[in-house]
């Protein structure tokens, strides 16, 4: 199935012109994978503190091929100052060990075939704002997807009413019908 849309979800029937005729019933469920950065959508952090952002990919049927981080629309380079990026299955973490004023801005987590998520980071020099938690050196942030989805992932649940067919015949017919 190419260019799957949310509107393609529903019940489908596949009929084989055999004698006797064979019918397969399918339920197609379409889900949209999306990135979610844990925590608030805006983070205030003190200069020199450690910033840790964690991005999770939700509603995906498999781990994304990649998860890229962007800072103010520029891809984050892993060798940049005091910066670490870690990936594990459906999760990616971005850590800035010593935040500088130039680290302020919008961070975007952009997984392959999923809607991205953004978080805005404000770097505070000197005094802390009232909204900032005192005594906390590590701050995480988060946000909701900010752009239309990049892709829609597909989950197919197949229910067949062919209990009387031998297993080999069933899989042969299924393969002819649907692949």
UniProtKB/TrEMBL annotation:
GO annotation, cellular component aspect: neuron projection membrane
Domain Ig-like: 20-120
GO biological process annotation, one example: synapse organization
Name the record gives this protein: Ig-like domain-containing protein
Source species, domain of life: Eukaryota
Top-level taxonomy: Eukaryota, Metazoa, Ecdysozoa, Arthropoda, Crustacea
Span of the signal peptide: none
InterPro entries in UniProt: Ig-like_dom, Ig-like_dom_sf, Ig-like_fold, Ig_sub, Ig_sub2, Zig-8
PROSITE patterns: IG_LIKE (PS50835)
């Amino acid at each position: 199935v190419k260019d799957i849309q949310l509107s393609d979800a529903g019940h489908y029937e596949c009929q084989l012109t055999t004698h006797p005729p064979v019918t397969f019933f399918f339920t197609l469920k379409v889900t949209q994978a999306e990135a979610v950065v844990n925590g608030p959508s805006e983070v205030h952090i003190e200069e020199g503190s450690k910033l840790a952002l964690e991005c999770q990919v939700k509603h995906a049927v498999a781990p994304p091929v990649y998860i890229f981080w962007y800072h103010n629309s520029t891809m984050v380079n892993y060798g940049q100052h005091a910066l670490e990026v870690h990936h594990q299955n459906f999760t990616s973490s971005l850590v800035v060990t010593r935040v500088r004023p130039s680290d302020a801005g919008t961070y975007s987590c952009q997984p392959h075939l999923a809607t991205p998520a953004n978080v805005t980071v404000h770097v505070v020099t000197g005094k802390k704002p009232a909204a900032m938690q005192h005594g906390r050196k590590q701050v995480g942030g988060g946000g909701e997807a900010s752009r239309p989805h990049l892709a829609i992932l597909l989950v197919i649940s197949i229910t067949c009413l062919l209990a009387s067919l031998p297993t080999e015949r069933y899989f042969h017919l299924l393969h002819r019908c649907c692949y």
